[in-house]
Amino acid sequence: MTTINTATETILAPLFINSNDLLNHWQGHRRVTRRVIEAFPEDELFNYSIGGMRPFAGLISEITSMSGPGVKGIATDEWTTINEMDHHTGKTEVNSKDALLMEWDRITDEINTFWAQIPTEKFQEVVLAFGQYEGEAYGIILYFIDNEIHHRAQGTVYLRSLGIEPPAFWNRD
Q1: Nearest to 89 by CA among 131, 63, 59, 68
Q2: What DSSP state is assigned to residue 52?
Q3: Is residue 106, in this structure, part of any structural domain at all?
Q4: Is residue 11 part of a domain?
Q5: Bridge partners (DSSP) listed for residue 136
Q6: What pTM, to 2 d.p., does this model score?
Q7: Using only C-alpha atoms, what is the Rg of the chain?
Q8: Per-residue pLDDT tens for 20-77?
Q9: What Å distances lie between residue 155 and 50, 87, 131, CA to CA?
Q10: Domain harbouring 33, CATH code
Q11: Most buried residue among 46, 73, 124, 157 by CB atoms closer than 10 A?
Q12: Which domain, by its residues, includes 22?
């Protein structure tokens, strides 16, 4: 919402999309990303890379370390710091595809739980995400979505290079 101040009251103008529709849009992307994880052979998920990029499991670790805790931070103003997160190394404590998918599903539930606790006006508030990224909460959320799409695209390239047809990016059901 955009805040419009008048002499007597403050009016909140709606966003281009309501919060439920934004969540549904993001969850559609998360379903596609989950299918990309499922498409990987387990050994390649944790080891395969191209051009020095991290293995896909490491990219997924980055996504999960930001998205669930990020929505929780927006909802509660309780943030972990970037220094407490180990996602940029590509290392993950998860060591099987099943465990990675379970963590993905846990984070999806965390997003849904804390999203429901975010008041509409909070999306327009400036937050300091992870002690490092400052911006309106909706912009931080859009960054989480963009980051996921970016890393999913890397995973899609990995799959193609392995001779595996990736899931259709446009099928978000």
Answers
A1: 59
A2: T
A3: yes
A4: no
A5: 126
A6: 0.85
A7: 18
A8: 999 999 999 999 999 999 999 999 999 999 999 999 999 999 999 999 999 999 999 9
A9: 10, 16, 28
A10: 1.20.120.450
A11: 73
A12: 17-161
Q: What are phi and psi of 11, to 5 degrees?
A: -115, 135
Q: Are 86 and 58 in contact (CB under 8 A)?
A: no
Would the annotation count 29 as a binding residue?
Answer: no
Q: How many domains does the chain fold into? A: 1
Q: Whole-angstrom Cα distance, residue 53 to residue 19?
A: 33
Tokens of 90: 């590509």
Burial 94-122 (b: 16+ CB within 10 A, else e): beebeebeebbeebbebbeebbeebeeeb
Length in residues, the chain: 173
Q: Could you report the per-residue pLDDT of 139-167, keeping only the tens digit for each?
A: 999 999 999 999 999 999 999 999 999 99
